[in-house]
Amino acid sequence: MKKELLDKDCISKFENACKYELLHAQTYRHLASQMQGVGYFGAQKFFLKEIPEEESHFQKHIDFLNDMGVTIDIPAVPAQKQEVKTLKDAFTSAMELEYDLLEYYREFIQKEGLEYGDIMQHLMFFVEVQRKTVGEYGDLLARIELAKDDAAALLLIDQELGK
Ligand SMILES: [Fe+2]
User: Fold this and answer.
1) Could you give the CA distance from residue 121 to residue 35 in angstroms, rounded to a whole number?
2) How far does residue 39's CA lie from ligand 1's centre (Å)?
3) Is 44 exposed, middle or buried (0-12, 13-18, 19+ CB in 10 A)?
4) By CB distance 3.0 to 4.6 Å, which of 62, 90, 147, 157 could disulfide with 153?
5) Ligand 1: distance of its center to the CA of 150 in Å?
6) What is the CA radius of gyration of the chain?
7) How far is the CA of 101 from the centre of ligand 1 (A)?
8) Which residues of 89-127 are buried (b: 16+ CB within 10 A; e: fewer)?
9) CB-based burial of residue 24 (10 Å sphere; 0-12 exposed, 13-18 middle, 19+ buried)?
10) Worst-scoring range by mean pLDDT, 2-6, 11-15, 152-156?
């Protein structure tokens, strides 16, 4: 049996982070399907691409924990039932989700990263990913706002999302 190199509190923060990453994969699966349902095939493609990204984030934590001698229970992902019918709603909820996690990782670093360089180094990757994602969604939402209710403009944005 491996010796656990992290304390209980730190492990529980990692468990939460794993849960977040799986929840994000699940949410993107949902958003992709909702966008497909209303004919925004570009947004569908965009969200589908996020799923393996999120799964790789989850795995990165699992691998780090393994290096630290820790194995965790795999968290359950909740069902997604909320109707999402517009690009604005889809990207607003994606933005909220990712911003939440940026804040989570910021706090995580502050509480656990300052003492141990290896934890800091591992978490730095995640704050950077979150910062870039939040920025990207902010830009997209700005463009969606510019298009307002102009269906043609929204379809153009959708087309770009699919590239
Ligand atoms: Fe992620």
Assistant:
1) 36
2) 26
3) buried
4) 147
5) 32
6) 18
7) 8
8) ebbebbbebbbebbebbbebbeebbeeeeebeebbeebb
9) buried
10) 2-6
Question: What is the whole-number distance in angstroms between the Cα of residue 137 and the centre of ligand 1?
Answer: 14
Beta-carbon contacts of residue 120 (< 8 Å; ≥ 6 apart): 109, 113, 114
Beta strands in 8-146 (DSSP E): none
**48-69 pLDDT per residue, tens:** 999 999 999 999 999 999 999 9
pLDDT the model gives residue 116: 87
Instruction: Please list all protein residues whose beta carbon sits less than 5 angstroms from ligand 1, which is an ion.
Output: 21, 54, 57
Between 157 and 2, name the one with better pLDDT: 157
Residue 159 CB contacts under 8 Å (≥ 6 apart), including other chains: 42
The rounded distance, in Å, linking the Cα atoms of 103 and 108 is 8
pTM of this prediction exceeds 0.85 = yes
When pLDDT is averaged across residues 6-31 and rounded to a whole number, the result is 97
